[in-house]
Write a structure and sequence with these properties.
Elements: E1 3-7, H1 17-25, E2 32-36, H2 37-40, H3 48-56, E3 60-66, H4 74-83, E4 102-108, H5 126-129, H6 131-139, E5 143-150, H7 166-181
């Protein structure tokens, strides 16, 4: 079964890493369904029923986004709030549609990996910062598949494809696809 990759990047055209990841995934439409929230919902009016059907058609879900203010971009948060409803994702009745699905994250973290540590710049690890996603996944009876992270593009608005080491980008593309494949 294909993997649903839900992309929440408010300005994908200026992204180096997220855009490279998407270009790679789109080469394999038989393996991945790429779903870009900011393109599909520019008005932020989420079609909950359609999103739930999309999830139901996939066993593996990857939430791909840049870390924004130590969380996700706001449209992804709204998507989680709107789509993971009581009675569908959790709760009584048929509220277990997320059960037995794997949910993982693919994030661009912006700063150097060592800055995400108890002794680093932000005093917290990326594991700690992304913990709400793991808790949410567990709450809806899905299986958390951890995360894949690319570090070190902090001044994203000033970074061009030429400035990011092409070898690092290429390596991350291969590692990201391997990460998704290992979710089985």
């Amino acid at each position: 079964m294909k993997t649903l990759v839900i992309v929440a990047h408010p300005d994908i055209e200026t992204s180096v890493i997220n855009k490279a990841w998407l270009a790679e995934l789109r080469k394999y439409p038989e393996l991945y369904t790429v779903h870009e929230l900011y393109n599909v919902y520019p008005d932020w009016q989420i079609d909950v029923a359609q999103e739930q059907k999309l999830i139901e058609a996939h066993e593996k879900i990857v939430l791909q986004f840049p870390v924004f203010w130590f969380s996700s971009p706001p449209l992804l948060k709204k998507w989680l709030d709107d789509v993971l409803t009581y009675g569908w994702a959790y709760g009584s009745g048929s509220g277990y549609k997320m059960q037995n699905r794997k949910v993982a994250l693919a994030v661009t973290a912006g700063i150097k990996e060592q800055d995400y540590s108890s002794t680093g710049r932000y005093k917290y690890s990326l594991d700690e910062i992304l913990l709400p996603f793991e808790i949410t996944t567990n709450y809806v009876n899905a299986t958390y598949g951890s995360y894949y992270a690319f570090y070190g593009t902090e001044s994203a608005s000033d970074v061009t494809a030429e400035q990011v080491n092409n070898n690092e980008v290429a390596r991350s593309v291969v590692e990201y696809r391997s990460f998704i494949a290992a979710l089985d």
